[in-house]
């Protein structure tokens, strides 16, 4: 049985058989989880297209009919499906209310690629969900197959205490998902030794000769101990070096990874990775992130 019992997939009014919906349906089919499909229509009339109400009603009617037809097809395939159509001026608040009301433990959504100008004016919804969602969030950019075939657990060996516990949760979640999907489990860490220092006295970072090499060696040792503890094959361990965004992007371009499982305490890095100005993100659309919360 899956670790996730009820999944909420969030769609926009123009979305249909998107990667997120395909992934959600496949996960529900493989696990027996309940599947809730929500279409959220933004009621902010930015361009005056809905000023007389007729355009809004046409859009709502069209989506009600599509939802009913989609739910019927999915039920015919054996899934337990519910649907809802929400007209809202607060997409973030609405989806969080739905998560709580339905008792969902996984939120699935297509990655929203925002234009640079819009990112300067508002915080993309994806970033807000990574920060504020009380449950795991699976952001889907594109998929090779409905079910993932290669899953990487990304750990942060720079953290201690609660961070170490979250790394254990990341590995547990990734392993459970891999077992459910009959997928390979990989272990991933990025070591950026250049950001590690002994002290900062205001006049600059203080380091010692060979210190970066020592950090790298220590983290590699800890990484392999973690891999040994969780019985992850050597060829499935990926110790990357350099700036995190660039290193992950290069890893994606040279691997078949379908999902990277990460702890949500790294949401700042995830924000940059999923929707920031870094060109690497847009060049690698097959990176899908499953972000989990501490205590999940």
From TrEMBL:
UniProt key word Transcription regulation: no
Alphabetical UniProt keywords: Cytoplasm
Domain of life: Bacteria
Keyword Cytoplasm among record annotations: yes
Domain UspA: 4-140, 165-293
One Gene Ontology cellular component annotation held by this UniProt entry: cytoplasm
Record localization: Cytoplasm
Principal location: cytoplasm
Record-stated family: Belongs to the universal stress protein A family.
Protein role: Required for resistance to DNA-damaging agents.
Protein name per the record: Universal stress protein E
Name of the coding gene: uspE
């Amino acid at each position: 049985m899956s670790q996730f019992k009820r999944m909420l997939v969030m769609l926009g009014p123009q979305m249909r058989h998107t990667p997120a919906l395909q992934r959600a349906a496949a996960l529900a089919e493989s696990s027996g989880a309940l599947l809730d499909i929500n279409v959220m229509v933004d009621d902010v009339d930015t361009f005056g297209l809905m000023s007389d109400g007729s355009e809004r009603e046409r859009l709502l009617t069209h989506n009600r009919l599509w939802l009913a037809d989609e739910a019927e097809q999915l039920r015919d395939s054996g899934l337990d499906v519910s649907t809802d159509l929400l007209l809202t001026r607060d997409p973030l608040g609405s989806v969080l209310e739905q998560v709580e009301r339905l008792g969902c433990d996984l939120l699935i959504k297509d990655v929203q690629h925002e234009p640079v100008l819009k990112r300067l004016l508002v915080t993309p919804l994806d970033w807000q969900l990574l920060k504020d969602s009380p449950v795991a969030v699976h952001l889907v950019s594109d998929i090779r197959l409905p079910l993932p075939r290669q899953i990487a657990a990304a750990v942060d060996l720079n953290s201690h205490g609660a961070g170490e516990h979250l790394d254990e949760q990341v590995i547990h979640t990734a392993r459970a998902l891999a077992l459910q999907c009959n997928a390979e489990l990989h272990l991933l860490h990025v070591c950026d030794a250049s950001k590690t220092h002994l002290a900062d006295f205001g006049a600059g970072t203080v380091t010692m000769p060979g210190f970066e090499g020592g950090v790298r060696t220590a983290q590699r040792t800890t990484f392999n101990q973690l891999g040994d503890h969780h019985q992850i094959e050597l060829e499935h361990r990926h110790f990357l070096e350099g700036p995190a965004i660039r290193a992950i992007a290069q890893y994606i371009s040279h691997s078949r990874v379908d999902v990277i499982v990460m702890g949500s305490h790294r949401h700042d890095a995830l924000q940059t990775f999923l929707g920031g100005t870094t060109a690497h993100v847009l060049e690698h659309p097959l990176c899908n992130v499953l972000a989990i919360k501490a205590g999940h």
